[in-house]
């Protein structure tokens, strides 16, 4: 089992946001997802997110999400690869998130990625978001990547205005916060949280390599990539140059 600390350490470099594949009748194409997973492994990808926003989790039934997650995790484990698999378990309500998170934990996911409830907090604001993560992490025992997706940015404006609140949110995760994925495309916020969370939680920028250049200088160890579904070597080489201090070669 991957501990929260181990997941935090594994969140380094490009993290691929995996696409979900469908057949012509709109049913899941699990064979295609297995082939894509094998492609990641061959290319040297070290971490992926399955059934996240790029994976169109919002268009999948809970059973389809579970099937997709299991197909990817089984492929990775069966290959003997150590590639990190993070399962997206965000949902409209806390209890649904707990159920999906328990499932992901049970099939061997290395971690889960969770947004605040994307339908809203019914006016409760930040305390409701804190309560959401508190309940999920008390009911489960797996590392969590907190995710401020585009769909929930309207709910977290107080955190964006006061990044120090993110430390309180991390504390609400009962020791299970491994990462924070930032989709704000707000450079001052990204810089602030990268500095605040450096050494505590892995900050993940998700607005491309140029955005990561900003965060890397301030402690962000990883970045999300959709391009990694097609040309992962570009992102891998970019990060390796950057990490080795060869900035001119990275850009």
What does this structure look like?
The protein is an alpha/beta fold and 251 residues long. It has eleven helices and eight strands. α2 (30-43) crosses α3, α4 packs parallel to α5 (126-139) and α8 (187-197) packs across α9. It starts with a helix and ends with a helix.
Short descriptors:
8 strands, alpha/beta, 45% helix, 8-stranded parallel beta barrel, single chain, 251 residues
Note the topology.
Blueprint: H1 4-10, E1 13-17, H2 30-43, E2 47-50, H3 62-79, E3 84-88, H4 94-106, E4 111-114, H5 126-139, E5 144-148, H6 157-161, H7 165-171, E6 177-182, H8 187-197, E7 202-205, H9 209-216, E8 222-225, H10 232-243, H11 247-250
Parallel strand pairs: 1-2, 1-8, 2-3, 3-4, 4-5, 5-6, 6-7, 7-8
Helix pairs in contact: 2-3, 4-5, 8-9
Helix share of residues? 40-55%
Spatial order of the strands forming the largest sheet = 1-2-3-4-5-6-7-8
**What portion of residues belong to β-strands?**
5-15%
Query: Low-confidence stretches at least 5 residues in length (pLDDT < 50)?
Result: none
């Amino acid at each position: 089992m991957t501990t929260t600390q181990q997941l935090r350490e594994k969140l380094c470099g490009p993290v691929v946001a995996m696409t979900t594949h469908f057949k012509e009748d709109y049913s899941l194409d699990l064979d295609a997802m297995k082939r894509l997973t094998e492609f990641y492994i061959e290319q040297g990808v070290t971490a992926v997110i399955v059934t996240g926003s790029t994976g169109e989790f919002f268009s999948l039934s809970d059973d389809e999400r579970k099937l997709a997650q299991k197909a990817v995790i089984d492929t990775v484990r069966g290959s003997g690869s150590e590639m990190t698999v993070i399962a997206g378990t965000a949902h409209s309500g806390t209890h649904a998130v707990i159920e999906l998170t328990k499932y992901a934990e049970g099939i061997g996911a290395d971690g889960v990625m969770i947004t605040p409830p994307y339908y809203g907090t019914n006016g409760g604001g930040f305390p409701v978001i804190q309560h959401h993560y508190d309940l999920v992490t008390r009911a489960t025992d797996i590392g969590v990547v907190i995710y401020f997706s585009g769909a929930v940015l309207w709910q977290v404006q107080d955190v964006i205005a006061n990044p120090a609140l993110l430390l309180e949110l991390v504390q609400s995760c009962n020791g299970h916060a491994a990462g924070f994925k930032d989709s704000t495309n707000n450079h001052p916020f990204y810089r602030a949280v990268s500095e605040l969370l450096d050494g505590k939680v892995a900050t993940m920028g998700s607005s491309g390599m140029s955005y990561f250049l900003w965060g890397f200088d301030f402690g962000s160890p990883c970045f999300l990539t959709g391009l990694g579904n097609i040309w992962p070597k570009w992102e891998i080489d970019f990060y390796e140059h950057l990490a080795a201090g060869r900035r001119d070669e990275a850009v």
